[in-house]
Amino acid sequence: MYLSKFLMFLLFLFISPSGMANEATGQLSLTGSWYGVLAVLVFVIAYALVIGEEFLHLRKSKPVLVSAGIIWALVGIVYTAQGDFHTAEAAVRDALLEYGELLLFLLAAMTYINTMQERNIFEALRAWLCSAGFTYRTIFWITGLLAFLISPFADNLTTSLLMAAVVMSVGVGKKRFITLSLINIVVAANAGGAFSPFGDITTLMVWQKGVVQFTDFFKLFIPSLVNWLIPAFIFSLAISKEKADPVLEKVGVKFGGFVIIALFVLTISMAVIAYNFLHLPPVLGMMTGLGLLQFYGYRIRLHEKKNTRDTEELAFLESTVNIDKEFLSKHYKLKRKPFDIFISMKRAEWDTLMFFYGVVLSVAGLGTLGYLALLSEAMYTSLGPTWANILVGLVSAIIDNIPVMYAVLTMQPDMSQGQWLLVTLTAGVGGSLLSIGSAAGVALMGQARGVYTFFAHLRWSWAIGLGYAASIWAHFLVNTGSF
Fold first, then answer.
1. What are 387-401's pLDDT values in tens digits?
2. Which residues contact 234 (CB under 8 A, 6 or more apart)?
């Protein structure tokens, strides 16, 4: 009795008359209701925990997963109370479908990157750079250029960690060199990811949404290059021309490594063909490519089981001739196992993938409550698309660009292709303004703790800001016909 009365009281409290205006879409405008305000409060608290991840050591996916559940529970309560049993369900299913496509696409891409890491592709590149004996300034430019060129195909996090390993190997005792090189790598990796559909989750979202076609992303190449080159030139003036001591190290690519690179290129091609020519979701091409990788992984596994054994393992087996092998297999694991593709899949960034789920569902829930329409009116109608899109980039320096871009895509403001390219550019490179503005910056703060810090990056934000402004100017200059 008391429970039912309490639930009725909550229902009455949440459903305020000010939030009951019907829209032509069939959704309710609920921004003035108590449960609408509560949903925003839940999301703000969850995102505050995400921002504090470095200090709280709480994985960023956890608060947004809970946030998504609470927000949609509130949406379900109000629509059910109005006798509408379909609108909320249809809205959440649309969000789940969109997330599912992106999840499988990213899982396939991450598995390829992890497999290339396991085959020593990136490690061999790092070892070559460390042993080449370049000057510090040359290494600064090479690592920045490689970050810019690799990140359109690999994610900016993996690219940044690889290049940072090179810098830290050859720059021992050179704090200024390490700091400026790491800032340069973050800027270059974010800029490189902005002109490719595969370079960042936000560009992938824009491509899969269909607002920018695959080849049109490359119109952002020059603006992205400008975004990196201007701060890089300023940083380089403070880098010594002294020759670095080479780190003598040789790393070979494991069996099948170069074939996997070819398969990755083929997989990307299949995703583009599926979308541009067959008018099918690009995830079909990516998952087909993942199947091809699994088949080739079986070939690698057979090769390693037949031909490869670690020297320590052989010595151990020779010393255990008279020991029960069945007992050994039950109680001891071999140090080195044959290749297993599912280990590469297991090593996908599941925290990021689950964070993406929480963000997409939370933002979709707030959109169903009417907040994205309100935000679209405030930004794109009042400020105009150009200033709104520039603001998106500045906001992404503080808030992760995934929820920001997903919110813009959900709003679907009426914009020209040039404006959609502008927001793709600003959301991609705006995170470089602060070290916490991108996954690459956060990761490198952990890798070079005490050297590359928030304030060390902040001291050079003015130079990055010049690159940000210049890239926007370059976009308007070279892509005038797109507006």
1. 999 998 998 887 777
2. 460, 463, 466
